[in-house]
Design goal:
269 residues, 23% strand, 2 domains, single chain
């Protein structure tokens, strides 16, 4: 019920001017893409002149949450979005009846476990508080990272939709608290540790390679959790979408990602 209400609220908000979802008819050479502020919108800004060379106008609309970019795409307010990985999109479709598909895999953002009041795993006391994202599959991803560090053990059948209810063993009696992803970095100083989504870590100037206590195994996670260009089903072959994919996979954009983010964002092949 909570997720249904969230979805309904997002649809209502999307008609309000402050949401920024409104938009008139766009010409056939204009592409409107919704994106998280960092790194997605920053990457898209680098793509603007490259899209212009192909005869397309790329417009970017920034969002701070993980719901409205999908509802706006489903309703046709956006042509595409760029902020999520495929497991999150699949889970969103299942829970909300949307018809979104992955048009291309662009980059991967490693999840990290960051220090708050405590800087070492061995120093975590019984009952210590660790916050994790509460959004869809990202909570499962965070719990898997904690499991890999030996802090908890998940039920054998726990998968991409695991929540704290799927914790089978918690030897230190840790308090695993679910928090809105956008609030994780802002709450870091008030808790012992936090598992933070890549884009929100970047907004807080945190690099998982240098600032995190632990980082997820990139061998499998890179393919599973690669961030995508997402479109409504049937629009995968839209020439504007294909042009954007070509640009985002170009050496120019790949080099920008590598040089700018120093391993906290990794371009996909």
């Amino acid at each position: 019920m909570k997720r249904i209400l969230t979805f309904a609220l997002a649809l209502i908000l999307c008609v309000l001017p402050l949401c920024g979802c409104g938009g008139g008819e766009r010409d056939e050479n204009t592409l409107l893409v919704g994106a998280s502020i960092t790194p997605h919108a920053d990457i898209l800004k680098q793509a603007v002149p490259l899209m212009a060379e192909k005869g397309y106008t790329l417009e970017i609309r920034e969002f701070e949450d993980y719901v409205i970019p999908n509802t706006a795409l489903e309703s046709g307010e956006l042509d595409a979005n760029y902020f999520q990985h495929k497991p999150y999109m699949d889970n969103f479709n299942e829970e909300n009846g949307t018809h979104l598909v992955a048009a291309a895999f662009i980059h991967y953002e490693p999840f990290g476990l960051y220090p708050g009041k405590v800087s070492k795993l061995d120093d975590l006391a019984s009952g210590a508080t660790i916050i994790v994202p509460n959004d869809g599959t990202n909570e499962a991803r965070a719990l898997m990272l904690l499991e890999a560090q030996g802090l908890i053990k998940l039920k054998e059948n726990a998968g991409f939709t695991a929540t704290v209810l799927d914790i089978a063993e918690n030897p230190k009696n840790l308090t695993i608290k679910e928090v809105d992803a956008a609030q994780l970095a802002r709450s870091l100083q008030d808790v012992d540790m936090a598992v933070i989504n890549g884009n929100y870590a970047l907004q807080a100037n945190l690099n998982p390679l240098t600032d995190a206590i632990a980082i997820e195994d990139q061998t499998g996670a890179g393919g599973t959790y690669a961030n995508i260009i997402c479109v409504k089903e049937g629009n995968e072959n839209d020439p504007r979408i294909q042009a954007l994919i070509e640009v985002l996979k170009s050496e120019t954009i790949r080099n920008y990602i590598t040089e700018t983010y120093q391993g906290s964002v990794v371009p996909m092949d």
